[in-house]
Design brief:
Number of helices: 4
Strand content: 35-45%
CATH class of one domain: Alpha Beta
Number of strands: 7
Strand order of the largest sheet: 1-7-6-5-4-3-2
Structural class: alpha+beta
Shape: globular
CATH architecture of one domain: 2-Layer Sandwich
Radius of gyration: 15 Å
């Protein structure tokens, strides 16, 4: 399942990019994310290949996702993968400067591990889209706050 969104953010590209590139900022807008733990030394100038564990509160339980930064070109592009036993998610953030701010083009592709996951993905796709819309609105609001994100 592939999902895309485009969001206009009335903030400089550097501030908008920091909302996805800085782990503390991600926890402010990404629903349920409680912790992002680097699994090796993190090179902020070039984190491609860096692995991390992302802990997300889903309902009443805490799930762990193994992640990796697969593309990084600040402040224009960042892509990660997130894996758990049920699925793999590839997330791509592309930023471009526009008059009055920044445009974010977001793409997420979810690859289910089995047929049961595919069925649930179809049945609950509306919920996934609703959560994504809330997250994009929260990311936009964070980037547009006065001061640094």
């Amino acid at each position: 399942m592939k999902t895309t969104r485009s969001v206009t953010i009335h903030a400089p590209i550097e501030r908008a990019f920091a909302c996805v590139a800085d782990n503390d900022n991600v926890k402010k807008w990404a629903q349920g994310v409680e912790e992002i733990i680097p699994r090796e030394p993190w090179n902020p100038a070039n984190p491609v290949g860096s692995r991390f564990t992302q802990k997300i509160r889903e309902g009443g339980r805490l799930s762990a996702y193994e992640g990796e930064v697969v593309a990084y070109d600040a402040p224009r592009h960042m892509a990660i993968t997130l894996d758990n036993p049920q699925f793999t998610m590839r997330v791509d953030y592309r930023f471009s400067e526009i008059p009055g701010g920044t445009r974010l083009d977001y793409t997420a592709e979810t690859i289910q591990s089995n047929w049961v996951g595919r069925i649930f993905g179809v049945l609950f796709g509306w919920l996934t889209n609703r959560i994504l819309d809330k997250q994009m609105a929260a990311l936009k609001a964070l980037a547009e706050q006065d001061g640094d994100a």
